Amino acid sequence: MKNKSFSTASGAVLALGTAFLAISPDAAAQIVTYNIAGVGADAVTATASVGSGVDPLNTTDLIAGTGLTRESSAGALLFTGWTTAAEPYFQFTVAPQANYTITYQSMDFSAARTFAFGGVLLGPQTWQLQYKTGSDWIPLGTTVSIAGSGDLEEVLGSFNLSPIGEQAGAVSFRLFGSDATTESALGGLAAWSGEGGNLVINGLAVPEPQQYAMLAGLGLLAFAAYRRYSFQKA
After folding, report:
1. If pLDDT is split at 50, 70 and 90, which confidence band does 25 have?
2. Which is deepest, 104, 170, 195, 212, by most CB within 10 Å?
3. Is residue 90 within 8 Å of 175, Cβ to Cβ?
4. DSSP 60
5. DSSP per-residue letters across 14-51
6. pTM for the full model?
7. CB burial class (10 A; 0-12, 13-18, 19+) of residue 207?
8. How deeply is 203 buried, as exposed, middle or buried, from its count of CB atoms within 10 A (0-12, 13-18, 19+)?
9. How far from the centroid of its chain's Cα atoms is residue 20's Cα?
């Protein structure tokens, strides 16, 4: 007959291992991916998927700002109106679920723009990222530029998100496109290069201290049950 104390110890150890796997932070990883490659020709938003092992996240769709006009193109979110739009940016929000924080590290994306008629129709040449954790939008201070004179240029860009740090609440992002030459010039996000192209947030989903306290409590329970079994066996 199986010793009851041994069963208790085994159960506690199993619970401990399960809890550790559930709340231990992963190494730096893709925590959120906005699927630009899967966007339909006339879709105006991109949906998010959460990376493996980082389920404790909430996200909004990636949307274009007011005043931008969609141009039909699969695998891309291309718009005109960058010189006149009231909101010349893409926006989305990422937030941890209860008892978790997010440590932000970087954002990767792919931007595209037209170059037509010798540069007369030149889409957004410069991209800047801003974020908000409270009431104010904060520029990250760096920009990504698109060079070249092809009919449709694409660039893989990255922003350092470490200034955002670790956040227990929602963080909203705005990716601004600027320096287009005319309202009809085309630009936006694209995933045509075959080298990436989706918009990706990299970082860590981290348990808050009370989660570690729960883990420690389970560890003490497992130890106590094991000690009791050892004494009974002796």
Report:
1. very low
2. 104
3. yes
4. -
5. HHHHHHHHHHSPPSSEEEEEE-STT--TT--EE-EEEP
6. 0.78
7. buried
8. buried
9. 24
3-state secondary structure of 103: strand
- Mean per-residue pLDDT, 144-163: 85
Helix (H, G, I), strand (E, B) or coil at 162: helix
Host H or E run for residue 85: none
Residue 152 is encoded by which pair of tokens?
């449709």
- Tens digit of pLDDT for each residue in 159-194? 999 999 999 999 999 999 999 988 998 999 998 765
What CATH code would you report for 25-208? 2.60.120
Q: Which residues contact 99 (CB under 8 A, 6 or more apart)?
A: 56, 207, 208, 210, 211
| φ, ψ (nearest 5 deg) of residue 184 | -85, 0
- Please name the amino acid found at residue 127: W
Beta strands of the chain (E only): which ranges? 29-34, 45-46, 48-50, 57-59, 62-64, 69-71, 76-80, 89-96, 100-116, 121-122, 126-132, 138-145, 152-160, 166-167, 171-178, 187-190, 199-207
Give DSSP secondary structure letters for 124-145: --EEEEEEESSSS-EEEEEEEE
